[in-house]
């Protein structure tokens, strides 16, 4: 069935048309317009409405490249339904390579936002009202925070609509993670919109593998929703669906030698890492306490006591078994917020 025109931020987009728009989000110190650029693609055929967002954290760049490559692939004459792609949500954070907005606010704690609030609240409000609300599904692209890397993984809420989409996405891991108040994913779910949060790679760089997994995953989700005809075959037979994770922290400071790699399965008693003093003396050797999967890791070669070293997903635990304040998508960066 042929679809009708759709309107985003007051701009009408006809079936078979793509329009790149830049609605006003706020103003800079100099009074220049701060806009939220996005591509609105309205397919010829009727179908679901899906949004893709990236760089809600301004130093998480993989999603920007994913969106650029996605937009090269999508033809409004050949899709059903509509797609709204926002390659850079935190337009100000990206300018300065910063996770946060210039006032140090975390945009992913600022949803649904408000008209008269902070810069973060205004950007969040625009995205919530014009892009998230009324969508049938969304995919929000992230990377690990500073000095860490994430194995490609999809995080979802306890939502029966999200799980099949997360599985078909085809990343190696699906994490059923708790929702944090003020996050894009939580506010979308309040508006009845299931969102997949993709995490992959490191901040401030393009990680080709993480971009590839994201791009193929988005195509598979769109194919599952019958918006496109075909998508690349999944690289993994079946993602590992896990309900709990925890960061393991260094007990001793020094030079870090990891004995496992991101993505590895570990078993109880397996050596995970050794720390040594710069003089060569071995200070601590840490073994795995239980079976798990390495889903994230530090990228720093030196550690201090308490520093997060490995993010281990644990099979067989219940959702919310641990309130882990370092969960990437949701964390307040402990290096920044402590002592403030
Ligand atoms: Zn993030």
Throw out a few tags for this protein.
340 residues, alpha+beta, Aminopeptidase, OB fold (Dihydrolipoamide Acetyltransferase, E2P), 2 domains, 13-stranded mixed sheet, 4-stranded antiparallel sheet, 7 helices, 21 strands, disordered C terminus, binds zinc ion
Please, could you describe this protein's structure?
There is one protein chain. The chain has helices at residues 62-73, 91-95, 119-132, 162-169, 184-190, 208-224, 334-337; strands at residues 6-8, 11-13, 17-21, 24-27, 33-35, 38-42, 45-54, 80-86, 137-142, 148-156, 173-176, 195-201, 240-242, 244-249, 254-258, 265-266, 271-276, 282-287, 292-298, 302-303, 308-314. The chain is an alpha+beta fold. The protein folds into 2 domains: 6-224, Aminopeptidase; 244-317, Beta Barrel (OB fold (Dihydrolipoamide Acetyltransferase, E2P)), CATH 2.40.50. The strands form 4 sheets. Strands 3, 6, 7, 8, 9, 10, 11, 12, 13, 14, 16, 19 and 21 form a 13-stranded mixed beta sheet that branches. Helix 1 crosses helix 6 (208-224) and helix 4 (162-169) crosses helix 6 (208-224). The structure holds zinc ion (ZN). Zinc ion is lined by residues 57, 60, 142, 328-329.
